[in-house]
């Protein structure tokens, strides 16, 4: 067994001991009983047969048969009870490890979620804990077989030792052949597992697209049917070939294994039959030795197979550990965030390039957002406006410089507490296929129900909600419920704005919040802006420069840097200014 096997076994059983130590107790009892059971069926028949061929005492025979049946029944029954208890716990652990996996996926550095290597590893982790290994149940079954086989082997060896070393040699040769075959089969499975994730991800990507109605329009309008079908077929073919290779290989080695077992059986019967014919052993001993030789062979073969299986399974399950232990690069602060209703935000000489890229997306940004100030961020596409917000939200750490909130580098703050300072609506916000109420509350039940009503009114979705028979309890999208709604882009944006306001954080960031709104709704949002964000600090990214008018300051991003900064009145007067030019360009269509 290699180091990875030990590490994986240690990792999982440490968790078991920590969470449900009784699991180990049941496992040990089951192992002990499994080891004892074969001896009942090896020893009793010998005495029964010898009694039948010898004195034929009915009373002795009856006692032997009853004892054998009761022992078999009792041991088997106890094994079933312990296994049933462990089976229940296995399910508990299946959920436990899955929950840890899901939590890790949600808590890991955001940049990992954009890294194909991590995404492949995540797939490997999930597959590795699934049918490839059978999870903890698979691991425990391996253990049970290994330890029980080992104990049985020791006993059987004592029985056979008195008979003949030739029996050992025949069984050992057969086991050696069998083990070689198992190692070949395991190699095939490992190769399949390693090649699987890329093909799997491509295959499921196409499936997920087809399962989401929002892709339906583009698929039809752009005639994407052929392209997607082709790509789906390609990845399906890839998967088919992968598994066909595996099954063909396993079948070939399986046939060879059957031939070896058959040769061994013939060898043992011929040899022990010869000893019985020349009366070197009794018929009872013949039966016992045949059963012992078979138990020895199957025990040893089983032990070796399960050891190889353990190595293979822990290899698969080790992928889960690799995923769980992915190093987070972002600084983890531990400073408590003080109660702050009016934070002051400072970008100090901040530069940034995205992970695995070398080009700076933001360069030397110096900017202060005063408490309660409303800042409008404008600029051409790709200038770095959203990136500026992502840095404030700690989706990435800055490459150079620092961001301070109330004089403290945001990296020093405890992450979850820091997140409570921010209510953000990104351009690519996502609503969940849950009720409107759940989408607004996001598990936060502190606010009064009436507050939701007010919010719906402010963000302009009240009319829509009131028109629905189930009101706020209507499901968004139709994934789960025919009566779910498919909100328009603008309606979705209004719900997203309401969700951000519901969070009631001291800093509100809206990235293109009105892009999908009609002019009336947009006007309403502008009009309600002060009521929506109140005296909170707010950052407002928009290409519609009319929105800048109700902001205190405007930051103009160009060529990845802060090109202009000031009030609307100041910037609009700069003759060569970018802002003045953009404002004029938009304004001319309205005169
Ligand atoms: N995850 C990422 N990895 C690498 N580069 C990225 C990533 N996200 C954005 N970029 C690049 O960073 C640059 C700035 O993008 P950003 O989204 O900040 O621009 P923006 O000013 O908000 O643009 P828009 O007005 O179009 O929304 C772009 O060139 C973009 O391609």
UniProtKB/TrEMBL annotation:
> In its keyword annotation, does this UniProt entry include Nuclease?
no
Task: Identify the SUPFAM superfamilies for this entry.
Answer: ABC transporter transmembrane region, P-loop containing nucleoside triphosphate hydrolases
Which ranges carry the ABC transmembrane type-1 domain?
139-312
Q: Give one GO molecular function term.
A: ATP binding
Localization, per the record, is: Cell membrane
Any idea which UniProt keywords this protein has? ATP-binding, Membrane, Nucleotide-binding, Transmembrane, Transmembrane helix
Kindly give the membrane topology term recorded for this protein.
Answer: Multi-pass membrane protein
Q: Which GO terms describe its cellular component?
A: plasma membrane
The UniProt transmembrane annotation reads: 22-48, 60-82, 146-175, 253-277
- Ranges for the ABC transporter domain? 345-584
Q: What is this protein called?
A: ATP-binding cassette subfamily C protein
């Amino acid at each position: 067994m290699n180091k990875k096997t030990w590490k994986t076994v240690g990792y999982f059983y440490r968790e078991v001991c920590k969470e449900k130590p009784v699991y180990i107790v049941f496992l040990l009892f089951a192992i002990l009983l499994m080891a004892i059971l074969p001896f009942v069926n090896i020893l009793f028949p010998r005495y029964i047969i010898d009694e039948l061929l010898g004195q034929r005492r009915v009373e002795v025979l009856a006692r032997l048969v009853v004892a054998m049946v009761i022992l078999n029944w009792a041991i088997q029954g106890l094994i079933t009870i312990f296994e049933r208890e462990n089976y229940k716990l296995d399910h508990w652990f299946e959920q436990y490890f899955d929950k840890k996996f899901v939590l890790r996926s949600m808590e890991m550095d955001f940049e990992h979620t954009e890294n194909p290597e991590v995404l492949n590893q995540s797939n490997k982790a999930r597959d590795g804990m699934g049918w490839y290994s059978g999870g903890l149940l698979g691991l425990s079954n391996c253990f049970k077989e290994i330890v029980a086989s080992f104990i049985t082997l020791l006993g059987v060896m004592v029985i056979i030792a008195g008979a003949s070393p030739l029996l050992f040699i025949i069984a050992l040769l057969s086991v050696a052949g069998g083990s070689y075959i198992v190692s070949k089969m395991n190699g095939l499975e490992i190769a399949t597992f390693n090649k699987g994730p890329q093909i799997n991800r491509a295959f499921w990507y196409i499936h997920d697209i087809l399962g989401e109605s929002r892709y339906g329009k583009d698929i039809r309008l752009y005639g994407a049917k052929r392209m997607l079908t082709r790509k789906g077929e390609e990845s399906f073919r890839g998967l088919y070939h992968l598994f066909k290779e595996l099954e063909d290989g396993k079948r070939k080695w399986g046939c060879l294994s059957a031939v070896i077992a058959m040769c061994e059986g013939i060898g043992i019967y011929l040899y022990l039959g010869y000893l019985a014919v020349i009366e070197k052993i009794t018929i009872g001993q013949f039966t016992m030795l045949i059963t012992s030789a078979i138990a020895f062979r199957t025990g040893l073969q089983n032990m070796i197979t399960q050891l190889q299986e353990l190595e293979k399974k822990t290899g698969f399950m080790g992928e889960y550990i690799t995923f769980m232990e992915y190093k987070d690069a972002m600084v983890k602060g531990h400073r408590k965030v003080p109660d702050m209703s009016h934070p002051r935000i400072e970008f100090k000489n901040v530069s940034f390039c995205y992970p695995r890229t070398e080009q700076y997306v933001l360069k030397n940004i110096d900017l202060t957002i005063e408490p309660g100030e409303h800042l409008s961020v404008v600029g051409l596409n790709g200038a770095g406006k959203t990136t500026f917000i992502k840095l404030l939200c700690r989706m990435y750490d800055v490459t150079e410089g620092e961001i301070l909130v109330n004089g403290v580098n945001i990296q020093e703050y405890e992450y979850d507490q820091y997140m409570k300072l921010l209510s953000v609506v990104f351009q690519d916000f996502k609503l969940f296929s849950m009720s409107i109420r759940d989408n607004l509350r996001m598990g936060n039940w502190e606010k009064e129900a009436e507050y939701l009503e007010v919010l719906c009114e402010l963000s302009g979705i009240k009319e829509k909600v009131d028109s629905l028979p189930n009101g706020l309890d209507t499901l968004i999208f139709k994934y789960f419920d025919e009566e779910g709604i498919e909100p328009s882009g603008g309606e979705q944006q209004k719900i997203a704005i309401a969700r951000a306001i519901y969070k009631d954080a001291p800093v509100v960031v809206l990235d293109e919040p009105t892009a999908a709104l009609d002019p009336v709704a947009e006007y309403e949002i502008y009009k309600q802006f002060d009521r929506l964000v109140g005296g909170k600090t707010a950052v407002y990214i928009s290409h519609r420069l009319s929105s800048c008018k109700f902001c205190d300051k405007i930051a103009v991003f160009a060529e990845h840097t802060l090109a202009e900064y000031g009030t609307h009145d100041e910037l609009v007067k700069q003759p060569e200014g970018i802002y003045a030019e953009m404002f004029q360009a938009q304004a001319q269509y309205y005169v």
